[in-house]
Fold this protein.
Amino acid sequence: MKYRILITILLAFYLAMSSYKDTQKNQEKEIANTMKDANLTYAVYTPNSTDREISRSAYADKLYGFWLAQCIANWTGLVTEMDKVGNIGETKTGDFYTREDWGTPDLPNIWSEGVPSDLSENIDFVFRGEDEIWGADDDTDIEYMYQHLLYTNKTSMLTGEQIREGWIKHLKHEEENFL
């Protein structure tokens, strides 16, 4: 009787683990297929022995982390942008910020007529909620442009001509940053 109970428990455990592994594999396949774009052609590629392989879902996770970190860095930098430009000509803003300034009140930038940043009272990280949109700024022009060009050219490697044509197409001479 004891053996029958033990065998039943082991069988139940085995079936549960098999089911869990199958579910996990199905979820990974679903994620991989979900992240595929019907507008792109995915070339068949056989990795070389020196290539590093990464799953599509792991890559998507790392890419998401890259863009999130880029946005946090850009928005955090907006708090102090143009506050301290050094002592150039008539503009006397003093020495640049250092680590010791982190967490202290933000100073006005050279354009704000004495008003500190409205993003944060102190020099600190600036975050947006999951339901909010992170705005773009001129510090990510290259990253956004290359991502756009990779997608519109349906490639993972841009040629010099594709890069040149993409930049020329998106130049806006009437805007301060030209993009």
In short: The chain has two domains: 54-135, 136-179. The mean pLDDT is 78. Residues 136-179 form one domain. The two ends are 78 Å apart (CA to CA).
